[in-house]
Amino acid sequence: MAYKPQYCAGQTIVADNRRKQMDPAHKLEKLREVSDKDLVLIMGHRVPGSAYKSAHPPLAEQQEPACPVRKLVTATDGAKAGDRIRYIQFSDSMYNAPCHPYLRSYLEAYRFRGIDPGTLSGRQIVECRERDLEKYSKDLVNTELFDPALTGVRGCTVHGHSLRLDENGMMFDMLQRCILDKKSGIVKIVKDQVGVPLDGEVKVGKPMDSKWIKAHSTIYHSLVGTAYRDDAELVEYIQRIHSLRVKYGFMPKEA
Amino acid sequence: MTEATFPQCRISAERLLNPETTERLLNKLIEVPGIRRMLLNGQRLPAIIPYGPAKGLANPHPMRRTIKVGDQDVELQVHVGNVLLELEDRDAIPALKAACESIFTDFTFRIQEGRYMKTEPSLVDYCKYGPNADKEMLGLADPSSKSKPVILQGIK
After folding, report:
1. Fewer CB within 10 Å of terminal CB in chain B, N or C?
2. Interior CA angle at A133 toward A39 and A80, to 5°?
3. Chain A residue with minimum CA distance to B46
4. CA A7, CA A110: separation in Å to the nearest integer?
Protein backbone atom coordinates (compact mmCIF):
# COMPACT_ATOMS: atom_id res chain seq x y z
CA MET A 1 0.00 0.00 0.00
CA ALA A 2 1.32 3.43 -0.93
CA TYR A 3 2.37 5.65 1.93
CA LYS A 4 -0.16 8.31 2.81
CA PRO A 5 1.07 11.13 4.99
CA GLN A 6 -1.09 11.87 8.01
CA TYR A 7 0.39 15.35 8.69
CA CYS A 8 -0.71 15.60 12.31
CA ALA A 9 -2.60 13.77 15.02
CA GLY A 10 -5.91 14.86 16.52
CA GLN A 11 -9.66 14.44 16.21
CA THR A 12 -10.88 18.01 16.69
CA ILE A 13 -11.69 20.69 14.13
CA VAL A 14 -8.36 22.35 14.99
CA ALA A 15 -6.39 19.24 14.07
CA ASP A 16 -8.49 18.84 10.96
CA ASN A 17 -7.70 22.40 9.87
CA ARG A 18 -4.00 21.83 10.51
CA ARG A 19 -4.04 18.75 8.29
CA LYS A 20 -5.89 20.62 5.55
CA GLN A 21 -3.40 23.48 5.56
CA MET A 22 -0.40 21.18 5.49
CA ASP A 23 -1.74 18.89 2.79
CA PRO A 24 -0.55 20.23 -0.59
CA ALA A 25 -3.40 18.32 -2.24
CA HIS A 26 -5.89 20.53 -0.39
CA LYS A 27 -6.58 23.71 -2.31
CA LEU A 28 -6.56 26.68 0.04
CA GLU A 29 -9.78 28.65 -0.08
CA LYS A 30 -9.27 32.04 -1.70
CA LEU A 31 -10.93 34.80 0.29
CA ARG A 32 -9.56 38.08 -0.99
CA GLU A 33 -7.78 39.59 -3.94
CA VAL A 34 -4.77 41.64 -2.95
CA SER A 35 -3.00 42.64 -6.16
CA ASP A 36 0.66 41.94 -6.93
CA LYS A 37 1.40 45.64 -6.72
CA ASP A 38 -0.22 45.93 -3.30
CA LEU A 39 1.72 42.93 -2.01
CA VAL A 40 4.97 44.50 -3.17
CA LEU A 41 3.95 47.68 -1.34
CA ILE A 42 3.15 45.81 1.89
CA MET A 43 6.48 43.99 1.84
CA GLY A 44 8.41 47.14 1.00
CA HIS A 45 11.41 45.47 -0.62
CA ARG A 46 11.19 47.21 -3.98
CA VAL A 47 9.18 49.90 -5.74
CA PRO A 48 6.27 48.30 -7.63
CA GLY A 49 7.13 47.94 -11.29
CA SER A 50 10.87 48.28 -10.76
CA ALA A 51 13.30 45.58 -11.90
CA TYR A 52 14.32 42.84 -9.52
CA LYS A 53 17.79 43.41 -8.11
CA SER A 54 20.06 40.44 -8.42
CA ALA A 55 22.60 38.81 -6.16
CA HIS A 56 24.37 36.92 -8.96
CA PRO A 57 24.11 36.57 -12.75
CA PRO A 58 21.30 34.37 -14.11
CA LEU A 59 22.12 30.67 -13.94
CA ALA A 60 21.93 30.39 -17.72
CA GLU A 61 24.82 32.82 -18.04
CA GLN A 62 26.95 31.09 -15.46
CA GLN A 63 29.35 28.24 -15.96
CA GLU A 64 27.87 25.75 -13.56
CA PRO A 65 29.98 22.81 -12.44
CA ALA A 66 28.94 19.32 -13.48
CA CYS A 67 26.84 18.29 -10.51
CA PRO A 68 24.31 15.44 -10.36
CA VAL A 69 22.20 17.27 -7.77
CA ARG A 70 21.86 20.34 -10.00
CA LYS A 71 20.59 18.03 -12.72
CA LEU A 72 18.03 16.51 -10.38
CA VAL A 73 16.72 19.72 -8.79
CA THR A 74 15.15 22.32 -11.04
CA ALA A 75 15.96 25.84 -9.94
CA THR A 76 13.05 28.10 -9.00
CA ASP A 77 12.32 31.14 -11.16
CA GLY A 78 13.97 33.44 -8.64
CA ALA A 79 17.09 31.30 -8.41
CA LYS A 80 17.31 31.06 -12.21
CA ALA A 81 17.24 34.85 -12.45
CA GLY A 82 19.68 35.33 -9.56
CA ASP A 83 17.27 37.36 -7.38
CA ARG A 84 18.11 38.67 -3.95
CA ILE A 85 16.80 36.83 -0.90
CA ARG A 86 13.91 38.73 0.67
CA TYR A 87 11.38 37.94 3.38
CA ILE A 88 7.84 38.21 4.62
CA GLN A 89 7.00 37.83 8.28
CA PHE A 90 3.68 37.20 9.98
CA SER A 91 2.33 37.55 13.51
CA ASP A 92 -0.70 35.45 14.38
CA SER A 93 -2.93 36.26 17.31
CA MET A 94 -3.42 33.47 19.83
CA TYR A 95 -7.11 34.36 19.78
CA ASN A 96 -8.03 31.89 17.05
CA ALA A 97 -5.93 33.18 14.17
CA PRO A 98 -6.34 30.92 11.15
CA CYS A 99 -2.65 29.97 11.13
CA HIS A 100 0.29 30.03 13.54
CA PRO A 101 4.10 30.05 13.29
CA TYR A 102 4.84 26.33 13.58
CA LEU A 103 2.11 25.43 11.17
CA ARG A 104 3.25 28.11 8.73
CA SER A 105 6.70 26.56 8.56
CA TYR A 106 5.25 23.09 8.08
CA LEU A 107 2.82 24.11 5.38
CA GLU A 108 5.38 26.22 3.55
CA ALA A 109 7.78 23.30 3.54
CA TYR A 110 5.06 21.09 2.09
CA ARG A 111 3.72 23.58 -0.43
CA PHE A 112 6.61 25.82 -1.54
CA ARG A 113 10.11 25.31 -2.92
CA GLY A 114 13.38 27.09 -2.25
CA ILE A 115 12.36 28.62 1.07
CA ASP A 116 13.98 29.15 4.44
CA PRO A 117 11.32 29.46 7.13
CA GLY A 118 12.17 30.73 10.60
CA THR A 119 9.80 29.88 13.41
CA LEU A 120 9.54 31.87 16.60
CA SER A 121 6.94 31.92 19.34
CA GLY A 122 4.99 34.90 18.09
CA ARG A 123 6.12 35.37 14.53
CA GLN A 124 7.21 33.41 11.54
CA ILE A 125 9.48 34.58 8.79
CA VAL A 126 9.99 33.00 5.41
CA GLU A 127 12.95 33.92 3.24
CA CYS A 128 13.41 33.09 -0.41
CA ARG A 129 14.24 34.60 -3.79
CA GLU A 130 12.32 37.81 -4.37
CA ARG A 131 10.09 36.77 -7.27
CA ASP A 132 9.35 33.42 -5.60
CA LEU A 133 8.46 35.30 -2.45
CA GLU A 134 5.95 37.46 -4.28
CA LYS A 135 4.33 34.35 -5.71
CA TYR A 136 4.18 32.58 -2.34
CA SER A 137 3.02 35.61 -0.41
CA LYS A 138 -0.06 35.76 -2.64
CA ASP A 139 -1.07 32.40 -1.22
CA LEU A 140 -0.22 33.48 2.29
CA VAL A 141 -2.30 36.68 2.17
CA ASN A 142 -5.15 35.92 -0.21
CA THR A 143 -6.28 32.59 1.19
CA GLU A 144 -7.75 31.15 4.37
CA LEU A 145 -4.31 31.39 6.03
CA PHE A 146 -4.87 35.11 6.61
CA ASP A 147 -7.38 37.15 8.58
CA PRO A 148 -7.14 40.96 8.40
CA ALA A 149 -7.83 41.37 12.13
CA LEU A 150 -5.91 38.45 13.62
CA THR A 151 -2.92 38.15 11.29
CA GLY A 152 -0.34 40.86 10.76
CA VAL A 153 2.39 41.27 8.15
CA ARG A 154 5.09 42.56 10.45
CA GLY A 155 8.77 42.74 9.70
CA CYS A 156 9.57 44.27 13.07
CA THR A 157 7.79 45.30 16.28
CA VAL A 158 5.79 42.12 16.08
CA HIS A 159 4.48 41.91 19.64
CA GLY A 160 0.73 41.59 19.94
CA HIS A 161 0.13 37.92 19.24
CA SER A 162 -0.34 37.01 22.89
CA LEU A 163 -2.19 40.15 23.95
CA ARG A 164 -5.91 40.55 24.31
CA LEU A 165 -7.61 41.88 21.22
CA ASP A 166 -8.77 45.47 21.29
CA GLU A 167 -12.43 46.45 21.44
CA ASN A 168 -12.67 46.43 17.65
CA GLY A 169 -11.40 42.85 17.54
CA MET A 170 -8.01 43.80 16.09
CA MET A 171 -4.68 42.41 17.28
CA PHE A 172 -2.51 44.98 19.06
CA ASP A 173 0.07 46.67 16.87
CA MET A 174 2.34 49.33 18.33
CA LEU A 175 3.00 50.71 14.85
CA GLN A 176 -0.65 50.54 13.77
CA ARG A 177 0.20 49.17 10.34
CA CYS A 178 -3.42 48.37 9.64
CA ILE A 179 -6.51 50.32 10.52
CA LEU A 180 -10.09 49.15 10.74
CA ASP A 181 -12.39 51.53 8.91
CA LYS A 182 -15.40 51.47 11.19
CA LYS A 183 -17.81 52.76 8.54
CA SER A 184 -17.07 50.19 5.87
CA GLY A 185 -15.71 47.51 8.21
CA ILE A 186 -12.70 47.07 5.92
CA VAL A 187 -9.14 46.74 7.16
CA LYS A 188 -6.65 49.00 5.41
CA ILE A 189 -2.90 48.56 5.56
CA VAL A 190 -1.28 52.00 5.78
CA LYS A 191 2.36 51.07 6.49
CA ASP A 192 4.69 48.50 5.02
CA GLN A 193 5.80 45.55 7.12
CA VAL A 194 8.56 47.49 8.87
CA GLY A 195 6.37 50.49 9.69
CA VAL A 196 7.26 52.94 6.92
CA PRO A 197 4.08 54.78 5.83
CA LEU A 198 2.73 53.90 2.37
CA ASP A 199 1.77 56.57 -0.12
CA GLY A 200 -1.68 55.04 -0.41
CA GLU A 201 -3.54 52.39 1.46
CA VAL A 202 -4.00 48.72 0.71
CA LYS A 203 -7.43 47.27 1.39
CA VAL A 204 -7.35 43.69 2.63
CA GLY A 205 -11.06 43.24 3.21
CA LYS A 206 -13.31 42.71 6.19
CA PRO A 207 -12.21 40.69 9.22
CA MET A 208 -13.78 37.25 9.15
CA ASP A 209 -16.72 36.69 11.50
CA SER A 210 -16.38 34.77 14.73
CA LYS A 211 -18.17 31.71 13.35
CA TRP A 212 -15.71 31.42 10.46
CA ILE A 213 -12.79 32.09 12.79
CA LYS A 214 -13.80 29.27 15.13
CA ALA A 215 -14.37 26.89 12.25
CA HIS A 216 -10.98 27.66 10.66
CA SER A 217 -8.74 28.11 13.70
CA THR A 218 -5.60 26.02 13.97
CA ILE A 219 -4.86 27.09 17.53
CA TYR A 220 -5.95 25.30 20.67
CA HIS A 221 -7.25 27.78 23.22
CA SER A 222 -9.30 26.69 26.20
CA LEU A 223 -11.02 30.07 26.63
CA VAL A 224 -11.94 31.12 23.11
CA GLY A 225 -11.93 27.91 21.12
CA THR A 226 -11.11 24.23 21.40
CA ALA A 227 -9.09 23.19 24.44
CA TYR A 228 -5.96 21.14 23.84
CA ARG A 229 -7.01 18.65 26.50
CA ASP A 230 -10.26 17.99 24.65
CA ASP A 231 -8.28 16.33 21.88
CA ALA A 232 -7.63 12.88 23.37
CA GLU A 233 -5.74 11.57 20.34
CA LEU A 234 -3.35 14.51 20.25
CA VAL A 235 -2.70 14.32 24.00
CA GLU A 236 -1.99 10.60 23.68
CA TYR A 237 0.39 11.27 20.79
CA ILE A 238 2.25 14.02 22.63
CA GLN A 239 2.52 11.88 25.76
CA ARG A 240 3.95 9.04 23.72
CA ILE A 241 6.55 11.29 22.06
CA HIS A 242 7.42 12.75 25.44
CA SER A 243 7.80 9.34 26.99
CA LEU A 244 9.95 7.99 24.15
CA ARG A 245 12.10 11.06 24.14
CA VAL A 246 12.74 10.92 27.87
CA LYS A 247 13.44 7.19 27.90
CA TYR A 248 15.53 6.75 24.79
CA GLY A 249 16.68 10.16 23.68
CA PHE A 250 14.14 9.95 20.85
CA MET A 251 15.35 6.61 19.49
CA PRO A 252 12.47 5.50 17.32
CA LYS A 253 12.01 2.10 18.85
CA GLU A 254 10.21 0.99 21.94
CA ALA A 255 11.61 -1.35 24.55
CA MET B 1 5.79 55.32 50.52
CA THR B 2 2.64 53.31 50.41
CA GLU B 3 1.57 51.72 53.64
CA ALA B 4 1.48 47.97 53.33
CA THR B 5 -1.98 47.92 54.81
CA PHE B 6 -3.68 49.77 51.96
CA PRO B 7 -5.61 47.30 49.82
CA GLN B 8 -4.96 47.21 46.10
CA CYS B 9 -6.97 45.84 43.25
CA ARG B 10 -6.75 45.35 39.51
CA ILE B 11 -9.48 45.78 36.94
CA SER B 12 -8.91 43.81 33.77
CA ALA B 13 -11.36 43.47 30.90
CA GLU B 14 -11.60 40.86 28.18
CA ARG B 15 -10.42 43.39 25.60
CA LEU B 16 -7.83 46.15 25.53
CA LEU B 17 -9.71 49.38 26.08
CA ASN B 18 -10.32 52.12 23.54
CA PRO B 19 -9.63 55.66 24.81
CA GLU B 20 -13.38 56.43 24.83
CA THR B 21 -14.08 53.44 27.08
CA THR B 22 -11.14 54.32 29.31
CA GLU B 23 -12.49 57.84 29.63
CA ARG B 24 -15.96 56.62 30.58
CA LEU B 25 -14.53 54.07 33.03
CA LEU B 26 -12.23 56.54 34.79
CA ASN B 27 -15.00 59.10 35.07
CA LYS B 28 -17.11 56.46 36.78
CA LEU B 29 -14.24 55.36 39.02
CA ILE B 30 -13.44 58.83 40.30
CA GLU B 31 -16.97 59.08 41.64
CA VAL B 32 -16.10 56.25 44.03
CA PRO B 33 -14.70 57.60 47.29
CA GLY B 34 -11.56 56.05 48.75
CA ILE B 35 -9.18 55.68 45.80
CA ARG B 36 -5.66 56.77 46.74
CA ARG B 37 -3.69 56.03 43.58
CA MET B 38 -4.49 54.73 40.15
CA LEU B 39 -2.25 53.39 37.38
CA LEU B 40 -3.17 52.70 33.79
CA ASN B 41 -1.27 49.67 32.67
CA GLY B 42 -0.82 48.44 29.13
CA GLN B 43 1.29 48.26 26.02
CA ARG B 44 3.25 51.41 25.37
CA LEU B 45 2.38 53.52 22.34
CA PRO B 46 5.37 55.77 21.65
CA ALA B 47 4.82 59.00 19.72
CA ILE B 48 8.10 58.42 17.85
CA ILE B 49 9.05 54.94 16.65
CA PRO B 50 11.96 54.04 18.93
CA TYR B 51 13.68 51.30 16.95
CA GLY B 52 13.67 49.33 13.71
CA PRO B 53 13.94 50.50 10.12
CA ALA B 54 11.28 53.20 10.69
CA LYS B 55 13.10 54.60 13.76
CA GLY B 56 12.50 58.29 14.32
CA LEU B 57 9.29 58.53 12.29
CA ALA B 58 6.10 59.82 13.88
CA ASN B 59 3.78 57.08 15.08
CA PRO B 60 0.20 58.31 14.88
CA HIS B 61 -1.98 55.84 16.77
CA PRO B 62 -5.74 56.16 17.34
CA MET B 63 -5.41 54.55 20.78
CA ARG B 64 -3.06 57.27 22.04
CA ARG B 65 -4.90 60.48 22.70
CA THR B 66 -5.76 62.87 25.48
CA ILE B 67 -8.84 62.00 27.49
CA LYS B 68 -10.69 64.08 30.04
CA VAL B 69 -11.05 62.60 33.50
CA GLY B 70 -13.04 64.85 35.82
CA ASP B 71 -11.72 68.27 34.92
CA GLN B 72 -8.21 67.08 34.14
CA ASP B 73 -6.68 66.18 30.81
CA VAL B 74 -4.89 62.84 30.86
CA GLU B 75 -2.56 61.99 28.03
CA LEU B 76 -2.69 58.27 27.38
CA GLN B 77 0.71 56.75 26.69
CA VAL B 78 -0.42 53.13 26.63
CA HIS B 79 -3.16 51.02 25.13
CA VAL B 80 -4.95 50.44 28.41
CA GLY B 81 -5.14 46.80 29.46
CA ASN B 82 -5.43 46.95 33.25
CA VAL B 83 -6.32 49.60 35.77
CA LEU B 84 -4.47 49.25 39.06
CA LEU B 85 -5.93 50.92 42.11
CA GLU B 86 -4.82 51.57 45.64
CA LEU B 87 -7.71 52.09 48.04
CA GLU B 88 -8.20 53.59 51.46
CA ASP B 89 -10.04 50.44 52.52
CA ARG B 90 -11.86 47.46 51.07
CA ASP B 91 -15.29 49.05 51.39
CA ALA B 92 -14.82 50.75 48.02
CA ILE B 93 -14.63 47.48 46.07
CA PRO B 94 -18.40 46.88 45.63
CA ALA B 95 -18.78 50.44 44.30
CA LEU B 96 -15.87 49.86 41.89
CA LYS B 97 -17.52 46.69 40.69
CA ALA B 98 -20.80 48.50 40.10
CA ALA B 99 -18.97 51.21 38.15
CA CYS B 100 -17.29 48.60 35.96
CA GLU B 101 -20.54 46.74 35.36
CA SER B 102 -22.09 49.88 33.94
CA ILE B 103 -19.20 50.32 31.48
CA PHE B 104 -18.29 46.79 30.41
CA THR B 105 -21.56 45.72 28.85
CA ASP B 106 -20.21 44.15 25.64
CA PHE B 107 -17.49 42.03 27.18
CA THR B 108 -16.50 40.56 30.53
CA PHE B 109 -14.18 41.95 33.17
CA ARG B 110 -12.89 41.05 36.59
CA ILE B 111 -11.69 42.84 39.66
CA GLN B 112 -8.93 41.11 41.56
CA GLU B 113 -7.64 42.02 44.99
CA GLY B 114 -3.94 41.62 45.56
CA ARG B 115 -0.61 43.38 45.60
CA TYR B 116 0.06 45.18 42.33
CA MET B 117 2.18 48.18 43.33
CA LYS B 118 5.41 48.20 45.31
CA THR B 119 4.94 48.72 49.02
CA GLU B 120 8.57 49.47 49.82
CA PRO B 121 11.62 50.43 47.76
CA SER B 122 13.86 47.59 46.68
CA LEU B 123 17.66 47.65 46.75
CA VAL B 124 17.62 48.25 43.00
CA ASP B 125 15.33 51.25 43.47
CA TYR B 126 17.78 52.69 45.98
CA CYS B 127 20.74 52.09 43.65
CA LYS B 128 18.97 53.64 40.68
CA TYR B 129 17.19 56.56 42.26
CA GLY B 130 19.01 57.15 45.58
CA PRO B 131 17.36 58.11 48.84
CA ASN B 132 15.56 61.16 47.44
CA ALA B 133 13.38 59.50 44.83
CA ASP B 134 9.79 60.59 44.58
CA LYS B 135 8.22 57.93 46.74
CA GLU B 136 4.72 58.46 45.43
CA MET B 137 5.91 57.37 42.01
CA LEU B 138 8.12 54.50 43.12
CA GLY B 139 6.95 51.23 41.66
CA LEU B 140 4.51 53.00 39.33
CA ALA B 141 6.87 54.74 36.95
CA ASP B 142 10.47 55.78 36.66
CA PRO B 143 10.89 58.30 39.53
CA SER B 144 13.39 60.28 37.48
CA SER B 145 10.82 60.65 34.69
CA LYS B 146 9.86 64.22 33.92
CA SER B 147 6.20 63.34 33.48
CA LYS B 148 4.26 63.89 36.65
CA PRO B 149 1.18 62.10 37.90
CA VAL B 150 -2.21 63.65 37.21
CA ILE B 151 -3.84 64.83 40.42
CA LEU B 152 -7.59 64.31 40.34
CA GLN B 153 -9.73 66.25 42.76
CA GLY B 154 -11.10 63.79 45.29
CA ILE B 155 -14.62 63.79 46.61
CA LYS B 156 -13.73 62.79 50.13
Report:
1. C
2. 135
3. A174
4. 10
Chain B neighbors of A172, CB-CB under 8 A: 16, 43, 79
* Cβ contact A156–B63 (<8 Å): no
State pLDDT tens for residues B41-63. Answer: 999 999 999 999 999 999 999 99
ipTM of the complex: 0.87
pTM for the predicted model, two decimal places: 0.89
Give the integer Cα–Cα distance in Å for A88 and A8: 25
Counting as low any pLDDT under 70, the low residues of chain A are: 250-255
Q: At what angle do helices A101-111 and A130-142 cross, to 10 degrees?
A: 120
Q: How far is CA A76 from CA A24, A115, A142, B42, B123, in A?
A: 18, 10, 22, 45, 59
Helix boundaries (H) for chain A: 13-22, 36-43, 68-72, 77-81, 101-111, 130-142, 210-216, 232-248
What single-letter DSSP state applies at residue A208? P
What span, in angstroms and rounded, lies between the C-alpha atoms of A206 and A185?
6
Q: pLDDT at position B156, please? A: 55
CA B73, CA A38: separation in Å to the nearest integer?
A: 40
Distance CA A81, CA A225 (A): 45
Q: How far apart are CA A136 and CA A115, in angstroms?
A: 10
Asked if A164's CB is within 8 angstroms of B14's CB, the reply is: yes
| Dihedral over Cα of B67, B73, B77, B80: its sign | negative
